Amino acid sequence: MLASISRVYEHYKTPLRLRHHMLRVAGVAQIICENWRGSLDTKSVITAMLVHDLSKIVSIPDSSLIRESSKEDDKPSRYWLNLKREYIERYGSEEHMAVFNMANEMGLSQRASHLALNIFLENATLPRTKDSELKVCVYSDLRVSPSSVTTLDERIKDVEKRYAVKYPRETVRILHKIEDEIRAHTRSDPSSITEKEVAPKIKKLEGFRISISSKALSNRFEVSK
Ligand SMILES: [Fe+2]
User: Fold this and answer.
1) Is the pLDDT of residue 187 over 90?
2) Does residue 224 sit within a domain?
3) Which residues surround ligand 1, an ion (CB under 5 A)?
4) Number of separate domains in the chain
5) Fewer Cβ atoms within 10 A, N terminus or C terminus of the chain?
6) Does residue 32 lie in a domain region?
7) Which residues contact 50 (CB under 8 A, 6 or more apart)?
8) Residue 34's domain spans which residues?
C-alpha cells in the first residue's frame, strides 16, 4: 500500500523534532536530485531521507529526549521514556539495527532501505563507494542541524559539540570531497542550498507517499502517558 510519510510518522509516534529534521534533509536531497545532470533514483533517495532517523529515539539519552522533545511536543516526561522503551522492545537498543528492523517491518524497497541504512556507515564505505545516491543522502543529512539547513562545516561543528566527538580530519576531507563531487554533477552549487529554499518544500514532502506493508501500520503502538 501507499501511505503518506505523515501517516507513517503518526503511526510510529515520531517526535516532532525528528520529523522536522527528516523532512528538511529530504528537502535538501530533493533540490540536489532536481538539479542533477543525468538520472538518479529520486524516489528512493527521498524515501530513505524521510525514514533515516525513524529509530533515533533508542539512542537518545533519557534526559536529552525529555528536554528536546518536550520543547515541541506537549507530553509528560513519562510518555517519552515509555515510547523509548517500546521502541527498544520492538526494534532493539542499537540505532542502526533498529532502523534495519523498522525498514523490514515497513517492507521498504531494497534500494530505499539500503540508502537509509548505509548513511550510517559513512566513514567505512564513503571513500570507496561510487554510489552517487548514497553520497547525496550522506551529504543532505550533514546539511541539516536540528532546526535548520546549515553549511557542512557548521553541521560538523554542531555534531562535535552535541555528541562531544571530534570528526577525524580525514573524514572532514572526504565530506568536502563529496560536496565537490555533487557540485560537479549538479546545475547549481549544493553549498548554496539554504533554509529559505528548503522550507517551502516541506509541506509537500509531508504528503510524500511511500510504499509500505499494510501489516506494519496495523501493529499499533500503545504508549501510556
Ligand atoms: Fe539525520
Assistant:
1) yes
2) no
3) 53, 141
4) 1
5) C
6) yes
7) 5, 8, 22, 23, 26, 205, 208, 210
8) 2-215
